[in-house]
Request: fold
Amino acid sequence: MRGQSRLIGRRLAQIIPVIVLATFVVFGLLHLVPGDIAFTLAGENATDARIAQIRESYGLDRPFLVQYASWLWNALHFDLSRSYLSNEPVLNQILHRFPTTLLIVCGALSISLTIGIPLGILAATKPESRLDAAVTSLASLGVAVPNFWLAMLLVATFALSLNWFPATGAVAFAKDPAKSILHAALPALALAAGGVAEVARQLRSGLIEILSSQYVRTLHAKGLSPAAILWKHGLKNVSVNLLTVIGLLVNRLLGATVVVEAVFAIPGMGSLIVHAAINKDFPVVQGVVLAMVVVVICMNLLIDILYTILDPRVALK
Amino acid sequence: MIRSVARWAWRNPPAGASLIFLLALFTLALLAPVVAPYAPTTQNVNNALAEPSWQHLLGTDDLGRDVLSRLIHGAPATLYASFLAVSVACLLGIPVGLLAGFLGGWVDDGISRVIDTLMSFPGIVLAIGVTGALGIGLTNSMLAVGIVFSPQLARLVRAQTLVVKQELYVDAARCFGASLGRIIIRHITPNAIQPVIVQITLLLAVALLAEASLSFLGLGVQPPQPSWGAMLARAYNYMEIAPEQMYSPGIAILLTALSFNTLGEALRVALDPTRKRR
Reply:
């Protein structure tokens, strides 16, 4: 137990440099702009005075590290500066939109797990069978299908033709939970295709490895039924693989949702960053990227901690 | 060489089919102006959103342009995009991974931390951010995707290098006074490259999907240049009156990504040294 808490403490300490590096990358985005940033921001036909004014008001005339330090200092105080376009504080926009995106991502994650886990187990218990081949091909399709195209197919079928689901928009969960889930269902389903495939694949290969190991052979010899072996020993050991997949999925779903949101015209993080990127509204771009990377880093930390609880060997090392 | 590839493809029908599909696609992309029945930008507003017919095998789009011709002319842009992104990822990721793995110590610690950090960013989101900064367009968006992919390759190459550098022949080369550059280029790279080839094939599929996504969002290919993602973006606007517009570009993307993936998985098995002896 002491080993575990010490390890968790060390993990907490380890994410500090990662977060600092991540903020550096996020801030550095602005400096990828080719040429003079103030010139780009001022737009075409801007006067020299206007450019100079922009340079000063955004602090672009100061050295890079000074700019970074002041940006970081403000970010630590939850000040992500204001949108160049709407002049609204970036943090407000993000807090306003993140719940919608999170609902879709959580929905997609639960669909991926509820469908992917049984598929993976079925395939692993009968390797090389027809069922296994079917699951494997389905997984290959799920990984290769462009999820925004799948979203379009779902909209055309279930929203426009059958009218079962709304085709566009979102409703806040706090306002009307049922309606908000109805709006999030199709986007979550479109996103989940890749997730189901990934979960089924990883679970299948992890479980096959475990079921063909030495100790499982011993359990067979001891006379334990295959079902008991699967449920008591197989799934317990494969849960560590599952954690890894969940961590990976959260990262991937947060990215993919950006494109899927566009199909459903959902006012989430996706439309926020796409609109900002096209219009060179860099504070918003930086804010969205920062918010997402912080979520992923926290998720990874949580998973690392769960590892140490699920697999005592990790703490012993 | 060609005969052994052909024999391998014959024994792996899915991999063989993928290889043939990709070769056909490359040929089509190279010969696009010759093969396509119409120019990709020839408009005929009187015949917009037409159903498939003998004149237009896959129908026409919202401006009356031939869908099949746009699909064929979109292939070069799509393939160029995938290969550009993966080349950028290789140019950035492979040297960094080699250095980290070979030098070890604080260099490795530092590089590994940076790799971990970059891999925490959701790929598409970071790519959108980088594209926003570089300016929208096909080449810039694919540079962004390449930058975003590079840590994956760096991490793989690093792990591979760590294994290979302990081999006896590397010590032997060092004893003979070989320079660091020569050891990395002549001894480590060829022996660490196999999983990298597999990863590159798989990354081509991811890059293809990323190109389609970014062009769909309007950050990649700009009109009137055809690309499969941009075709889907147009089809999106006519989803209610002509849902069949989205079938052909979507299926083209799906099949190409599937082929790269299938080929990559088959290569993983074929190149796996522990399976070779059988």
